[in-house]
Amino acid sequence: MLSRLHLKTIFVSLIFCIISNSEINALHIIGGDVIYECRGIDTIRKEVKFFITFTMYRDSRSGGANFDPTANFGIYRGAGLNWTYVSTVTGIKVTNITDIDIVTNNPCILVPVNVGVQKGIYTFEITLPIISQNYYISYQRCCRNNTILNLVDPGGTGAAFTTEISPEAQNFCNNSPKFDHFPPVVICVNRPINFDHSASDVDGDSLVYEFCIPLTAGGTDGATTPGNPESCNGVTPNSQNCRPPYAEVNFRQPNFTYDRPMAGNPIVFIDPVTGIIGGSPNLLGQYVVGVCVKEYRNGQLIGTLRRDFQFNVTTCEVAVIADLKATSKTQTEFTINSCGDFKIDFLNLSTDVRFIQNYYWEFDIKGKKEIYNTRNVSVTFPGLGSYSATMILNKDLPGLAECSDTATITVNLYPSIDTDYEFAYDTCVAGPINYTDKSVSGAGPILKWFWDFGEGTSTVQNPAFEFESPGLKSVRLISEDVNLCRDTSIQDVNYFPVPSLIIIEPNTFIGCQPANIFFDNLSFPIDETYTLEWDFGDGNTSGEISPTNTYLDVGTYNVSLKIISPIGCETAKSFNGLIKIVPSPTAGFSFTPEEPNLSNNTVQFADESQNAISYLWKFDSLAISLFQNPSYTFKDTGTYVISQIVLHPSGCTDTATALISIFPIVNFFVPNAFTPNHDGLNDDFIPKGSFLGLRNYNFTIWNRWGDKIFETADYSIGWNGQRNNTGDIAQPGVYAFLITYIDPLGENKTLKGHCTLLR
């Protein structure tokens, strides 16, 4: 069918420029608009909250850039030519990236495969003070497609998508209009557009439509030549530096202007009342069009909604494809084979249904013509043989000869084929099942067989197959004769035998008390539908396929297992003396001192284990000992894992562990008086003692009026009797001190008291 399709495909005759890969990376913008919704007014704060929705459209088939993952939006205040920067809303993520359906208003046109448009949405909420000026919100980005015909330097022309929120819109909590549809991505040359580009306004304001000049911002600075990519001529202009008003795109005059954006006969126009874009473009190419919707309330203009977009004017070819379900197909010929059934249902697969206005079927049955005019037909043929037919789409349709297509059909009626088989097996014994083919054909012997057992396949006539698991098995046989006629037979096999040999494998045969023994059941075949009766010899039982049993007492145990299939087949086996449980020791110890530190860092360990004959001590990763009651001296602070492993005469072991923390020593005292007379004796008021491991130390002195006159974070520095070390002498008397710190255990500590300054 591919060779037929290329004769009736869409030809898109656009003018393309040869551009470099680096230029392509910035080209993608084909349109966008910004709307706002009022979320409420705070009359106390005199603020209004708006929800901003920016919709951007990109060319998804040009190889250009994707949507920016995040975008920045500039906020300004002012009017006309004077705008003041307010802020930038940064990091707004793109969401709801979707493909735009490419449709045309012509009932016999296929959509070109090399044109694609994607929509991406950026949203954010913003609260603004209500002011007597307009707010201006914009997004700036370069660039547009290089192949646009009605602009000068389109590849270096960016876009500024904006919205203005007037003082009236702020005070009225206004909502901007919303466009109801996106313009057609593809329109056909010399065919009417007739597109409804109207908008809806939830506030009921009056709307007036007009073509307007799209805005441009940014450029290729930093994209193809060295420069600052965030300059006003960069790919993503800096909103703080690059303020409105923005430049307008430069149309290729005099052939194109903002209000005559495309050549046409009649010229392309927009109805100011309905928003319908009419006219008939008569020149191939890509064109940028700007539309403005002015919003009036009580005769006063309170806002303008802007959108610009790209029209793709193409040469369109109408086409339909005749197709139907068949045994085999060529470009225009279809063969349908039927085996034993003389009534044939012809399933029409012709496309596109929208383009097809009538169907014509003509069958030659033994020299007699039978004619039908429905999409699908059913025909009963008189007997075996070969018959010819024709299907014509849009037969004799005035003015739409290019929408017609024809299929030539051959119908072959062959004798029937009947697939059947039988099987035999012992239902209670696991093993192969023998299958015997019983298929017959009116055309002669069966030539091919295909068996599907669900767990494997076979192509021999009479196979033998053993299932890997029990269950209700569905077995399918497909047989084929000389005419390639096929038939299928499906039968269920009730396969629930018991294992021919019970095999269990415990994870150990000799376990240390108490012992958790896992019994791995290797018997085949069994599954959850089988009944299992385990007896572990210690009074415990189980119905699991592969259970675990805990033996608590020393001794030797017999294990038995009975297996019953869902259809009542049984098998059983006993394993005498299978499991032996031997005694285990019990590890345990104590130590002194219970809270060692660096000054008391030798720890004595006392064995408290039972039934042990040897001992292994592990002092974390520092050392080991084989003594029963060892000691160990820890040379550094920290927390250590101590392990005791003891051995029983049976060979069983047990382990006990404990954590020992060796802490630094924080132990200091504060004198109650000092004499700062520079005689070298008791000249400073300073804490004395051990400060090892102390953190966040802070020492302050306060006078009786609550003034802080000394502070230090160094415990080696004391107060010398001066006010904040300025040289001013503090008067003799009583002063308060406060010491705070975090001790080695991470606890916050506070020490407060008084000291006497003597002179």
Protein described:
- This protein is mostly beta strands and about 750 residues long.
- The chain has six domains: about 30-315, no CATH class; about 330-415, Immunoglobulins (Immunoglobulin-like, Sandwich); about 415-495, Sandwich (Immunoglobulin-like); about 505-580, Immunoglobulins (Immunoglobulin-like, Sandwich), CATH 2.60.40; about 590-660, Immunoglobulin-like (Sandwich); about 665-755, Immunoglobulin-like.
- The chain has three helices and 57 strands.
- Strands 1, 2, 3, 4, 5, 6, 7, 9, 12, 17 and 18 form an eleven-stranded mixed sheet that branches.
- The longest helix is centred in the N-terminal third of the chain and has 6 residues, at about 165-170.
- It is flat, with a radius of gyration of 46 Å.
- The N and C termini lie far apart (about 115 Å).
Q: Roughly how many Å apart are the termini?
A: 113 Å
Helix content: under 10%
The biggest sheet amounts to: 11 strands, mixed
Class by helix and strand content? mainly beta
Number of domains: 6
Q: What low-confidence regions span 5 or more consecutive residues with pLDDT below 50?
A: 1-26
Q: Evaluate the radius of gyration.
A: 46 Å
Q: What is the number of helices? A: 3
- Morphology call: flat
% residues in beta strands: over 45%
